[in-house]
Amino acid sequence: MVKGLSGRKKPAEEPVLPKVTICIAQDGDEVYFRYVRNKKIQNLLTLYCKEKNIDYRSVEFLFNGKRIATGRNANQLGMVDGDQIDVMTHNIGGG
Amino acid sequence: SVELEFVVLDDLHWSEKQENIKSLDLKYNAAWKTIISECSFKDSFEDIIYPDGDPDAVFLSKRDIELLQPRTFINDTIIDFYIKYLVTKIKPGEQHRFHFFNTFFFQKLVNVNRDLYRDCEGRDVFGCVRKWTRNVNIFEKDYIFIPVNFSLHWSLIVICHPGEGPCILHMDSIRGSHKGFEDLIRSYLSEEWKERGNRHEEDIATKFLNLDFIMLQVLLLSLTPSLLLFSR
């Protein structure tokens, strides 16, 4: 699934926002998004959860093994086309 | 000794819970201290980002804090928070000696290993965590810590002196409950070694595949709990 190329072309005077292709991967299932580089990744992740019907708080999103801090965008994270975000489920256990 | 502080807010059953904790070890009873503080605490726990500004900061919500109740399983957020807290206790000049993986590292290794079970090549499993260490050379560290979660139980793998003569410790309070992960860790180390441009030293890489695992049964940590009781 490719997002972001929705429908009609915008009027020419509007600036074209640079985008990046991000892969969101969960348990072997991969979904690709074209997403604006300087928009909060969090918004994309919320959308992903909505589409997948999962509770945003029940999972953790990792980029290169690190949690994605609130408010960060693709530029700040140094993302390039094809970069992957891992969706991890929370684990519980006794000691 | 370690000092442990509990903050208790309006818990009707606290005295019973307190006795339960104390009954775990005689030393607890002796070291127990109750501090009643006038310090006011907000009714609701506000979400915390810890440590603020850390690229891998942990986000703690009220839901996580509730897992600190007795007889409740704790989650990865609590474990990772505590690891990050412990790191702040290491002298700044010493911090470079250690590397702490977060709880998801092992989860990722195990998940991918399971998915690729039929075609279980070390390199495939390694591929999923290859970028996790791109800013750190684990072979320059003295100790590497890998929190392990499997079948509702936590344990800890410590790789000692990975760049020299490594030895792997597996600390587990239930002996033998986390068996069968030796090869996963061995092949991870071997692949990571090759990844670091050490291809000409394949013989060393194979050494990693034969590393000994030392199982340590860690029962109870020596704790000196003190109780911080906030009343309003």
From TrEMBL, chain A:
This is Rad60/SUMO-like domain-containing protein. GO terms for biological process: protein sumoylation. One of its GO terms (cellular component) is nucleus. It comes from the Eukaryota. GO terms for molecular function: protein tag activity; ubiquitin-like protein ligase binding. SUPFAM superfamilies: Ubiquitin-like. InterPro entries: Rad60/SUMO-like_dom, Ubiquitin-like_domsf. Residues 25-88 form the Rad60/SUMO-like domain. It holds the Pfam family Rad60-SLD. Signal peptide: none annotated.
From TrEMBL, chain B:
It holds the Pfam family Peptidase_C48. It comes from the Eukaryota. Keywords: Hydrolase, Protease. One of its GO terms (molecular function) is cysteine-type peptidase activity. Residues 58-232 form the Ubiquitin-like protease family profile domain. InterPro entries: Papain-like_cys_pep_sf, Peptidase_C48_C, ULP2A/B_PH. GO terms for biological process: proteolysis. The keyword Hydrolase applies. Belongs to the peptidase C48 family. This is Ubiquitin-like protease family profile domain-containing protein. It comes from Erythranthe guttata.
